[in-house]
Amino acid sequence: MAEASRHDAWQAGDSYEAYMGRWSRQVAPQFLNWLAAPANLDWLEVGCGTGALSAAIVAQCRPRSLIAIDPSEGFIAKAKAKAKAKAKAKAKANVSDKCAEFRVGDAQSLALEDASQDMVVSALVLNFIPDKQKALAEMKRVARPGAIVGFYVWDYPGGGIEFMRAFWNAATALDPKALDLTEGRRFPFCTGDQLTAMAEEAGMASVECRMIEVATVFADFEDYWRPFTLGTRPAPGYCTSLDPGAQQRLKVRLQDTLPRQADGSIHLKARAWAIKALVP
Ligand SMILES: C[S@@+](CC[C@H](N)C(=O)[O-])C[C@H]1O[C@@H](n2cnc3c(N)ncnc32)[C@H](O)[C@@H]1O
């Protein structure tokens, strides 16, 4: 595994939820509002993780079907368990619910027929896929003519995920070598213009791009810091690779530099770039 990507471990669903899933869950409804899909469509979600976007699709879009794939067995298990619990609660309340079908799979070779889906979407995934153009070509292949392909990724080059930027600012001040691990360096193509160009290069039409911003509010410093100590994903992976002394120095630096409200809470923002395109 390349040096910069060695902390991209995707297995522990609970750790991911605490670190990133909770914020992706906030972007998802805004993204789906923007896609404005009618009910009763066949949906595919690529790289569903613990099911942040899948849950929003089921809740908001009344799909006819939803297949959600991810290569991580741990994340798929977590997404399945969450969807099952939700469907059970709804059944108790006598409300019918369509459960997503979660499968282990890879965006670069989707085990689906050509032209079989009406909506093909993905959240916070594209930058982690080794062959991004292959993944976009696959998303287009399985979409019916006239289908929508949509995805979002964080605005890494613009430093738009403020909680992550604060972490790396502190980490690189103490350990300049960590600069190569920062998402801004690793994913420079996560800009509106470049994502638009990538979708066009994949043969998609009427490509539109917009920014989605959400508030990331941490109840206190521990709420901010703890997810970094759980290890799932690049920055937490780096944090847990540090020896206890280095990790403590990083924690203290963040404690000293993060802006706090009077009640101790930390109010930051996170920006994502979203793309929507038509399959000709
Ligand atoms: C930041 S998480 C996003 C998860 C979820 N979509 C969300 O919004 O919370 C990135 C996801 O990309 C998945 N991923 C990495 N490589 C992939 C690939 N080749 N094909 C599909 N998904 C992939 C990871 O397993 C992980 O679940």
From TrEMBL:
Gene3D superfamilies: Vaccinia Virus protein VP39 (3.40.50.150). Its EC number is 2.1.1.-. GO terms for molecular function: methyltransferase activity. Residues 44-149 form the Methyltransferase type domain. Keywords: Methyltransferase, Transferase. It comes from the Bacteria. One of its GO terms (biological process) is methylation. CDD domains: AdoMet_MTases. SUPFAM superfamilies: S-adenosyl-L-methionine-dependent methyltransferases. PANTHER family: METHYLTRANSFERASE. This is Class I SAM-dependent methyltransferase.
